[in-house]
Amino acid sequence: MAQVVARGVRYLRLLSVLHKLGKKALEDPELRELAKRVNRSMQLVVYDEQGVVVNAWIGVENGELVVKQGTYPATNTARMHIDVLLDILEGKIDFREAVLHGVVEIESHDGVPWFYHFALWSTFFNKLREKLL
Amino acid sequence: MKHVLVMSGKGGVGKTTIAANLAAALKEMGYKVGLLDADLYGPASHHLLGLPQEPLQEDVNERKLIPPVIRGVQYFSMSYVVPAEEAKAIGLNLPAEKVRDIIVTLVKNVKWVADYLVIDTPPGSLDINLKLLELLPRSGIVYVMEPHPMSLENIKRLVNVAGLYDVVGLAAVVNKVNLFPAKFRSAVLDYLERLRVEVIEVPWDEELIEGVHPEKLFFRRLAEVVASWRR
Fold it and tell me: Tell me: the pLDDT tens digits for A62-109?
């Protein structure tokens, strides 16, 4: 029961944070422009101790920055614990440092090394971090 | 493109100062130059060169990252990915194979368009340095040391390791020569003479802490030695 409650609490927190940030992030012209320049798509896999909580996809479709739930083809995947994602979205930790300290794992699906994707995504997540603060 | 590894056996002897100034001096001579700060755990070259402000770009056709340019030098450093003023933690906490992945990416997946790629290497991190020696056969090495027994011992070990790879010693920079007792100098110079590399002595100068100074005679001499290297 405690695990179910814990999972529920984190999921609700995540929805709440995403709701506040979603509109702000998706309509921001700087972020849209950077996402186009990054020129890749990311499958986000968020998990807790019991398994996957959220699958989401971030990328550009028809010239627009899109964030949608579900599993879609992507150039790379980023996996992280839900607490890490919450801390990133709340500005408590930096996505880039989270990758370099092993709490976010990036996997490449298109033949270039994982660090290649990370280096390009870093500019986008740096700007996102500025918007979140 | 010729690769120049700036190496020492221990930290704090001045590799970053020498690497950044060598890159700047080669650029002043009219060469196209890249500087890769391969000290992933503690990059410092941004203190001397500054950080590029432009966002990282990609050559989509060649699938290579385009290195930004600072002071006319193509440049890449972990400090460009996570600027020092934003970083809370130091270094990396990744398995060795992921660290090697980063080095491979920075060497093979960055579009260096240069006559010389100068690589500032980490101190003693044998895994990264061995990976560089393996990835870059026929590289030239600039050894950096201080004139005292501890540094001499480390350089000897480094030379032994480098001897296992297809690389050539170009020069030895004896750094901060005016800070150490003269009694150590002869042992250092005797050893370096047996290595048959150009020896360049660089005095400690507080001016060297900030910016690059390619006009200094010892950096110009080092650049001339590198430029005269025929592979």
Answer: 888 888 889 999 999 999 999 998 888 888 888 888 999 999 999 999
Query: CB within 8 A of A15, min separation 6: which ones?
Result: none
Residue A124 DSSP code: H
- The total of other beta-carbon atoms located within 10 Å of residue A22's CB is 12
Reported as half-sphere exposure (CB side, CA atoms, 13 A), residue A6 has a value of 10
ipTM of this complex: 0.90
**pLDDT surpasses 90 at B64:** yes
Q: How far is B45 from chain A (nearest CA, A)?
A: 18
Going by the DSSP 8-state scheme, the letter that residue A71 receives in this structure is -
Q: Distance (Å, rounded) from C-alpha B159 to C-alpha B87?
A: 34
The reply to whether residue A97 touches residue B82, judged by beta carbons under 8 angstroms, is yes
Judge contact between A35 and A122, C-beta under 8 A: no
Residues B121, A119: Cα–Cα separation, whole Å: 20
- Which residues, in sequence order, are bridge partners of residue A108? A76
Partners of A36 on chain B (C-beta within 8 Å) are none
Give CA–CA dist B155/B140, Å, rounded: 15
Closest alpha carbon to B46 in B8, B75, B14, B87: B75
Q: How far is B83 from chain A (nearest CA, A)?
A: 10
Task: Report helix, strand or coil for B177.
Answer: helix
Q: The pTM is what?
A: 0.92
CB atoms within 10 A of CB A86: 19
- Distance between CA atoms of B144 and B21, rounded to whole angstroms? 13
pLDDT tens digits for A19-59? 666 666 667 888 888 888 888 899 999 998 888 888 989 88
Q: Is B191 helix (H, G, I), strand (E, B) or coil?
A: helix
